[in-house]
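idk why but the lab printer keeps eating my pages so im just putting this in chat instead. protein + zinc ion:
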Amino acid sequence: MRIRTFFLLLMLTPAVLAEGLPDLGEISQGDFSPVVERRVGEAIMLDIRLHEPTYLDDPEIRGYLNRLGSRLVAQSLEARQDFEFFALRDATLNAFAMPGGYIGVHSGLIVAAQSESELASVLAHEISHVTQHHLARQLNTQSQAQLPMLLSLAVAILASRAHAGGDFAQGALIAGQAAGIQHQLNYSRDFEREADRLGILLLDRAGFDIRGMSSFFERLQKFSRLYENNAPGYLRTHPLTTERIADIENRIRPMPYRQVPDSLDFLLVRAKIRATEGTPQDAVTDFEEQLRERKFTSEIMVRYGLAVSLSRARNFVAAEREVGELRRLKASSPLIESLAADLRKNQNDLAGALKILRPALDRYPQERGLAYALVETLLADGQTQAALRVTVDELQTYPTDAQMQRLQAKTYAALGKRLQQHRSLAEVYVLQGQLMEAIDQLQLAQKADDGNFYEHSQVDARLREIKVRQAEEVKEKKRQ
Ligand SMILES: [Zn+2]
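predcted complex ->
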């Protein structure tokens, strides 16, 4: 099922929404405000996180994309909202912006980018579609005649998704139909030109090589000639014409040439994506061959890819040898540290893993993957109180980190603190926008036979708060 078809959800009205489906309220033409956009995006994103099998739930890859994306967003004068970048495991070359600032990138596109500036150019283009509200403006120009068809299709798609693992054949059929309609929702030439123009500005201000945009788009266009009618997805949603490329080149020509080295994490993330595709043995063979024939631009990248592949093949000793080579090459990255710790853990050396993770997290405090690994390892080592302290500290700095919140619930469970366990779990659901589930958990917390008076009154207060919020949502739904 293609994620792109999701934005047909925009056409939904509450009357047709079955229970358990993302409830977007009434969204009609001309009524697509930034607030509504964000709500639509949040609902779709939750669905992707929970149900989309290709969603790449890797904190390192996600962390990298968000660092790269934020660097560009910081240069935008129009960006007045949060952005979230995520990856899907999909070999096709595609990237897309959903309403509300959620930007998805296919792993195929990340691997195909030959420089970090090239990858940044695609993100900059997508960010500009979001800041200019192109999706909303495009939908507002759809003819009224198409709306009923879009509506019925969107309902069918949602229904088929509602039962996970349900009727795949039907889902595929619907996806096929949706792809046809999707075609009519492609961005107009004017929007493409505007996204290119603003994208170039972002790239330049953020210190990337602006020529990355023309070189990447030219390569995408070459791909599309090979594919004939089956052009890479990116070109279908962002029609690329010779005129558009010429336009980009005209803008770039007067600007000074700038050589920008790729960050190490760009290289490592691409190696990790490759190393985690196909069978572990094929990945090992592939990287070994690159190393033997010295077919690489970065030895660090290839050795890291080989180490990840060897770890997948459960050859931990050989993988550690590669990590040793990486240290010898003076490579330093949070991705290498978490791999090194993971290899220790896999050989039942929890103390050794902790010895790597603690200083690594001090050095890269923003790296979520290291923080999760530290908590997991402390729990595995029976250091439950220490694990709890880490989750409390981390949630103070990153209060919307649902995964850390879930780890805290797990930690409370290990401590046998039932009230706190349900209370933590309730916060996970709040962060995911699932208020009914949050209420269930808080009611379980109320019934827990542990917890002191103070903790119980905190639970009561939080439950009242969430119930009010839930009631407001129901009222809003009825008003429409
Ligand atoms: Zn575009």
